[in-house]
Amino acid sequence: MRRGRRRERAGVNAEINVVSLIDVMMLLMIIFMITAPIMQGGVDIALPTADVAPLEPKNGLVITVDRRGQIFIDETKLSFDEFAGSIKALSDKKGGGGVYLRADEAVPYGTVVRIVAAMKAKGITDVGLVAEPDGDR
């Protein structure tokens, strides 16, 4: 009798259970979707508002001046002398897509003029001043 009632063991399951892997992947995707806008770099400034069209993204060089008058090229902080000495090389390296000047609305007009004059002195003529459209605030 014992021979006839022998248990049959289940075979080895060689499949990978991917349900838990999919759960982890979806959780990571949600975390990245939430944190990606927060992680975008840049210098925090309050752009002045004006009646302007939204800016078309290009491959230009972005120069930012914060409230304290500190100059940043992309996210690298430079003194005015360093800026004036390296702006032409950085502009040429970026590929000629123009230069975009983002200045906080609290920055004195004289600081903006000095920066634009330094660029003009180095032969950079394609300079755009960045502002927020009126309806965004």
TrEMBL record:
Transmembrane segments: 21-39
One GO term of the biological process aspect: protein transport
Places the protein is found: Cell membrane
GO cellular component: plasma membrane
Membrane topology of this protein: Single-pass membrane protein; Single-pass type II membrane protein
Entry keyword annotation includes Nucleus: no
GO MF terms, alphabetically ordered: transmembrane transporter activity
Alphabetical UniProt keywords: Cell membrane, Membrane, Protein transport, Transmembrane, Transmembrane helix, Transport
Family: Belongs to the ExbD/TolR family.
Protein name, entry field: Biopolymer transporter ExbD
Protein species of origin: Gemmatimonas groenlandica
